[in-house]
Specification:
By secondary structure, this protein is an alpha/beta fold. It has one domain. 23% of the residues lie in helices and 26% in strands. It has 7 helices and 28 strands. An 11-stranded mixed sheet has the order 5-6-8-10-13-16-19-22-25-28-27, with helices on one face. Strands 7-9-11-14-17-20-23-26 form an 8-stranded parallel sheet, with no helix packed on it. A 5-stranded parallel sheet has the order 12-15-18-21-24, with no helix packed on it. β27 and β28 form a beta hairpin. α2 runs parallel beside α4. The protein starts with a strand and ends with a helix. The N terminus is likely disordered.
Length: 438
């Protein structure tokens, strides 16, 4: 085995960066392909990705709510941040939750409030006119008139890493324990205005956009933001929601995003996170969906099952002057991509698409080459297909012509500027982070 070192930030929960760097070893096998362990956390990967972009976010301690935390009161506090007022009647049902459900829910609210503070500090000085203008520019594919400075981006990444740490180390394990213990609420518990929803133990339909939504089981249909964060929706009247989290533990779920709005772990001017842990799921998004960041951070993770993804413009790990992170761990998946999707970075942003298992099919719906590892305007776009399976690359616009990314066990460079890279069974995400080529 050979070893390749890369500088990165301190990967210890609770330890602030304080400018210190470590040089952990990445082992390369005889083929020169570095692979992360299957259970590496998204928080650790985000920290490594930030370091690869020359950024040094802090690693903050994760919050932990007491066992008797008042979920209703915390929901009121969270709602007030988005000008969503909850009455005592609105929060009464939250106070009836079993403690095994209430404590991780309260912990997640505390983490969300802390992340919201950091997010607001990162965007200090931005006006609603700034948000609206940049949103229009992103939608039109035009140069952006305003982006975050490196210091501001580090602040936003600090918040995103802390949220991901909290979800992975505390919230998900405790919620899974609660579901296995049989104390999950049989009927959905939710407020009427979009702050917090805990789905039932059966099949649910959700149409109200939420800051936080949690679900334990059932074949659910999400016709809402599902962890999509947005603040400047072009006058559509959507509530300001710069932090959004969606966690679904099991079931064959269907996610249908709304046109022109961030969804499914997409982050517009904030942080969006979606975690779906089991089941054969279906995802459709239009703009900044499935782990894409538009001057923000989008985090998407599907851990089990064979999924079907359909992304319109800007999805599946695209970074527009921000960070987009898409991760699918296993299953035979079908991808249908529009324009700038599948590991795309522009305007100094980083977009990462990372599929770790299964026999997959990648289809371009418009015949564009600006997908599957593409970069421009000083961005980085990384597409990583990490298995040795014979995946299919299909040109859906003209099926008789081979797709420009039609290969297995290969690599390619895509984009108008250096930074776009596709690797299919040619080097894992760890390899790209370490090698930095391009």
């Amino acid at each position: 085995m050979r070893a390749l070192t890369l500088p990165t930030i301190l990967l210890v929960i609770g330890a602030p960066l304080a400018g210190a760097l470590l040089t952990p070893q990445i082992d390369l096998d005889d083929a020169g392909i570095a692979l992360f362990p299957p259970d590496i956390t998204d928080a650790d990967v985000l920290a490594l990705l930030a370091a690869s972009m020359g950024l040094q976010p802090a690693r903050l301690p994760v919050p932990l709510a007491p066992s008797d935390a008042d979920v209703g009161l915390l929901a009121q506090q969270l709602g007030a941040r988005a000008d969503l007022r909850l009455s005592e009647d609105d929060i009464a049902a939250f106070r009836t939750l079993d403690p095994l459900v209430a404590q991780p829910t309260a912990t997640l609210i505390l983490a969300t409030l802390q992340a919201w503070d950091l997010r607001d500090a990162a965007f200090a000085g931005w006006t609603m006119a700034d948000y609206a203008l940049v949103e229009r520019q992103m939608s039109a594919g035009e140069p952006l008139s305003k982006v975050l400075t490196p210091d501001q981006m580090e602040m936003l990444l600090t918040a995103a890493i802390m949220l991901s740490d909290t979800i992975e180390s505390i919230v998900i394990p405790q919620l899974e324990f609660a579901a296995q213990a049989g104390v999950w609420p049989p009927i959905a518990v939710a407020d009427p205005v979009g702050v917090l929803r805990i789905g039932s133990s059966g099949n649910d339909l959700e149409t109200v956009d939420r800051i936080i939504q949690l679900d334990g089981r059932g074949n659910d249909v999400y016709k809402n933001n599902a962890g999509g964060a947005v603040i400047a929706p072009q006058g559509l009247g959507v509530t300001v929601r710069p932090i959004a989290v969606s966690i679904d533990l099991s079931g064959h779920d269907t996610y249908e995003g709304k046109p022109d709005l961030a969804a499914q772990g997409g982050g517009d001017f904030g942080i969006g996170l979606l975690y779906d842990l089991a089941g054969d799921d279906s995802y459709w998004s239009d703009l900044n969906g499935a782990g894409s960041g538009g001057v923000g951070i989008g985090i998407f993770r599907d851990t089990q099952g064979s999924e079907r993804y359909q992304a319109g413009q800007t999805g599946l790990g695209a970074g527009i002057a921000g960070f987009g992170y898409f991760r699918d761990d296993e299953g035979d998946d079908v991808y249908r991509a529009g324009h700038v999707t599948g590991g795309y970075g522009t305007t100094g942003g980083l977009g990462v698409f990372w599929d770790r298992g299964g026999v997959d099919e990648y289809g371009s719906m418009i015949g564009s080459t600006a997908i599957w590892g593409w970069a421009q305007l000083d961005g980085k776009g990384w597409f990583v297909e990490e298995t040795a399976s014979e995946d299919a690359y299909v040109n859906l616009l003209n099926p008789s012509r081979p797709h420009p990314r039609a290969c297995n066990t290969c690599t390619w460079i895509g984009g108008n500027t250096p930074g776009g890279r596709g690797n299919d069974n040619y080097g894992g995400l760890a390899y790209l982070i370490a090698k930095q080529d391009p």
